[in-house]
Amino acid sequence: xxxxxxxxxxxxxxxxxxxAVYPAMAMLAGMQLDxxxxxxxGPLAGAELAEAIGVKPEKLAPLLYALSAAQLLTVENGRFGxxxxxxxxxxxxxxxxxxxxxxxxxxxxxxALLKTADTIRTGRPRHKHDFHAMSEDELAKFFQGQHFYxxxxxxxxxxxxxxxxxx
Length: 167
Known about the structure:
This protein is mainly alpha-helical and 167 residues long. The protein has helices spanning 4-7, 12-33, 46-53, 57-69, 84-89, 99-113, 116-122, 136-163, and strands at 44-45, 73-76, 79-82.
């Protein structure tokens, strides 16, 4: 009798999807802790960065290495620095900063995505937004998080429209 395990190749696709979530979660944690802004002037040791953001160095260290593995930070001789992309988009105060709206948006949408199966199972939304009850600040953050995607969609539509490739 042939075992099921030998009938298939290794679960490469499953493993790839399983591991893909970690860089995204590290990025969100880094955004929530604002680890990128203190690095705007150059690399810092982990303890210096921890002090700058008000956390314990031993708790921050694994995240810093995860952000390095996710290609958002560099690490050399125990000093961490922003990659060019993180420096451009994740440093508070930069003209291209996307952290404020994105941080809230990612946290919200990823919570909703974790409830997909339950929504399908019950036939009722499990992550609702009560826009009427949201404060102006909450509404602004929610929609700011979608701004980047709206711009990208607009660019795609403009390209389709100007090239004459209509769907």
